[in-house]
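Lab meeting, action items carried over

1. Structure of the two-component assembly. Owner: GW. Status: complete.
Input record:
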Amino acid sequence: MNAFATHFRLTEEDVIIYAKDTLNLFSKRARLRSKEIGDGNINYVFRVWDEDTQESIIIKQADILLRSSGRPLDIDRSRIEAEALKQQWQLSSGFTPKVYQYDPIMCAIVMEDLSDHQLMRTALLKIQIFPLFAEHISSFLVNTLLPTTDLVMESANKKALVKKFINMDLCKISEDLVFTEPFFNHKGRNIILDENMDFVEREIYNDSELVLEASKLKHYFMNNAQALIHGDLHTGSILVKIDSTKVMDPEFAFYGPIGYDLGNVIANLFFGWANILVTKHGKEAEKFILWLEETIEQVVDLFKGKFIESYQKTVTEVSFKKENFMNWYLEDILEYTAGTTGLEIIRRVVGDSKVIDITGIEDRTARIRAERMLIMSAKRFIKERDCIITGKDYTRIFRSLYDELYLNIE
Amino acid sequence: MNAFATHFRLTEEDVIIYAKDTLNLFSKRARLRSKEIGDGNINYVFRVWDEDTQESIIIKQADILLRSSGRPLDIDRSRIEAEALKQQWQLSSGFTPKVYQYDPIMCAIVMEDLSDHQLMRTALLKIQIFPLFAEHISSFLVNTLLPTTDLVMESANKKALVKKFINMDLCKISEDLVFTEPFFNHKGRNIILDENMDFVEREIYNDSELVLEASKLKHYFMNNAQALIHGDLHTGSILVKIDSTKVMDPEFAFYGPIGYDLGNVIANLFFGWANILVTKHGKEAEKFILWLEETIEQVVDLFKGKFIESYQKTVTEVSFKKENFMNWYLEDILEYTAGTTGLEIIRRVVGDSKVIDITGIEDRTARIRAERMLIMSAKRFIKERDCIITGKDYTRIFRSLYDELYLNIE
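Predicted assembly:
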């Protein structure tokens, strides 16, 4: 077991010995079991539990190669994930899994087992309602983001964090997959339904204004070291149960624009919404849709309210504490939020990395129409981003495109 | 001579032994002489020369304490200066002193002796004309800045440079002295002529729109890792002779906004201009003023022309190579340039760090008026920065305020 010479990848058997003998996390007599439960592409996630006491932990090990393609990926992301998780746990008072230990040699994060939660993406597709979600996620965002800006931190301390969280490889993935490939069909990696090919060509590739705005948003993403953001905050990075919300997997964390996190949450709620709108009918579905619509609005509006409240309490720096600066700063965040919402929608519909909310729509006509209405609302989120500032601005645009493109299609 | 235990500060005697015996830069028999020629606050600059051959070098040693106050200052700035100099020398084909060697233990940069040049600030006050200056400085700026952006560099390589050039202490100096203290009289460090106290209070401290714009520019400075900038490009960092321009002292270098460098050059040319306008008369002064006015215009316009030319040759990245993106990017640079010009003018007139161009105006009434016209043009550069895009836009504003506030004062 020479972890120094090459990367030693744990198996279900190894991880028991590792947890018991190397990390001393269970008693020597414990009868441990383990299971690899990861569904991602770049890491291995083991649940390890004691048969008798039912005590359990998660051990997440980063691999040096992508699971799918075998392409190498910077292993430093594991340190970044562990450090971001610890910081977010502390700042958000527990809206992430608690990290018990990080092993930099094995690139393994030992953390709280949240198997009593489920992935939010899965839960939404089962039309389950989480009445506290908007409250929780807006608190998580405000509490993890604002305190890491140089509005609150000392200039030098913030710069030290910027340095610590430079995340070359994973930022490059976002730069390519979110901001570039979908708009240029760069490297030919986009995956589009045949029936939507012409539509995408006309509405995306040939819309030079849209492509320009996407490029500006990309440049902003690459250059604005605003806050320590999660960097990949879709509903597959969020665990929920009825009274709890946990944000995990911040391996894309780096100093970037605040609006990038908020916009990703909004876009991924829209995917759930689009799925249920076109696949489910009846009372229960209607109730769910109403809740989700309200939730999207609340995520935006609660974020704004809590942001202002926290700003007024914590920003004391002489240049930044004034109300007119705060208003400008918040408008800038909201503008980038709307832009990101549009970008995330387009990249999931057009780009290489899909979401089950859309690919899982079995009725082909329904999926074609859903994709079109998503694309058209995304375009408005991007182009009109300086006017999209309330929760209702989002749902209004989406609703009108649903009516126009989905219901009234010839 | 224990350089490891504490910082060993060289004297004129030590530096001869150091150059000959430690660095082996001269023959063992050379009869060396040395002189400390630094006029800065944070470093010691030695000229070392061979009495017989007249070969010479400069050794610049960073101290761990400020010369004036004894306050400690991050010694890492010395590494940053050496690395920035080497990179700028290469990118600009020699518009900086050539670095022969860097000694990280002694924090000493051994470099080309440019004693045949003079400080540009001094030369301007002697109404000396440098017909090639606009050509040279615009080439220096375009050639050192654009290639370090992520428009030209690979995303990961650029991020590695951002990390390498995180420059906490010296950025903090700029954040305080340029962007904060002058607008709030923060820490009471501003130094203002009694006769201009009310004027400054009304036109700066109480102009909430101006203060807001300065705060936005500060936030941009702290968060926009656009290019490896010089960071302190005033006329005291530039050496000139009739056919040569050399930019030195990049210890403030970090990844920041391109417009910050260009704006500093423009502002400092205005100081020379203001000085001569109000202190000198006659044919020679008039000729000088004409040249300087033209030079200010050319610095802006040549920068733009060369920037576009270089952009079209070197930017091949799919999102950024399009002409509409380039135009937006250049406009953004020019906007920040005008803002910086205004900030640099205000901080030198109002703030703690003065320039001899202004403090050297002996006629008190002339100085009072010169300061007022500088402040009023600075305000326009800041507030109207999105419309200031040609060289003439600068000189026109300055001229009109000279006519209004200097010539027609009651």
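2. GW to write a short summary for the group page. Key points so far: The mean pLDDT of chain A is 94. Strands of chain A lie at 32-36, 43-50, 56-62, 99-103, 108-112, 118-119, 227-229, 238-241, 244-247, 254-256.
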